[in-house]
Amino acid sequence: MTIIHVDADACPVKDEVVRVAQRRGLDVAMVSNSWMRTDPDPRIKLVVVEQGPDVADDWIAERAGRGDIVITNDISLAARCLEAGAIVLGSQGREFTEAGIGSALAMRELNAHLRETGESAGYNAAFTKKDRLRFLDAMERSVQKALRLT
């Protein structure tokens, strides 16, 4: 059975995930370090983990597996979940793949270095309506792919 795991603390597409999950009858685990309002649907579960670095990531990585979908922008978590066989999407609809995760990890390290040295301010572009639509399209494709795996 496919489960959608959401790294929910800073996820801008929680509502979109819920809509797709409800339409497809899938369970969702919204994993967060603090309480947040979620849809009252019994298939949508809020999992509040302890405070601390990577606690939510660890919870997701320990449970995600083949046929599951993980929604995260955290590249390290994406790599761990891909290794477990999960389908991983970023909030802008980018699917992380085995072929591209190495490059993504290297780029993350480079960007961290540039921020530490002051050569980059770490600017993040605003999340747009186009990003939401791209995510919804990618989410629908990922659900179809996950359901074929289970």
Question: Short summary of the structure?
Answer:
Strand 4, helix 3 and strand 5 form a beta-alpha-beta unit.
Please characterize this protein's 3D structure.
This protein is an alpha/beta fold and 150 residues long. The chain has a single domain (3-149), classed as Rossmann fold, CATH 3.40.50. The protein contains five helices and six strands. It has helices at 14-24, 55-63, 75-83, 98-116, 129-149; strands at residues 3-7, 27-32, 44-48, 69-71, 87-89, 95-96. A six-stranded mixed beta sheet has the order 3-2-1-4-5-6, with helices on both faces. β4 (69-71), α3 (75-83) and β5 (87-89) form a beta-alpha-beta unit. α1 (14-24) packs parallel to α5 and α3 (75-83) runs antiparallel to α4. The radius of gyration is 15 Å and the shape is globular.
Labels describing this entry:
46% helix, globular, six-stranded mixed sheet, 150 residues, Rossmann fold, 5 helices, alpha/beta
Q: How is this fold's topology laid out?
A:
Elements lengths: L2 E5 L6 H11 L2 E6 L11 E5 L6 H9 L5 E3 L3 H9 L3 E3 L5 E2 L1 H19 L12 H21 L1
Parallel strand pairs: 1-2, 1-4, 2-3, 4-5
Antiparallel strand pairs: 5-6
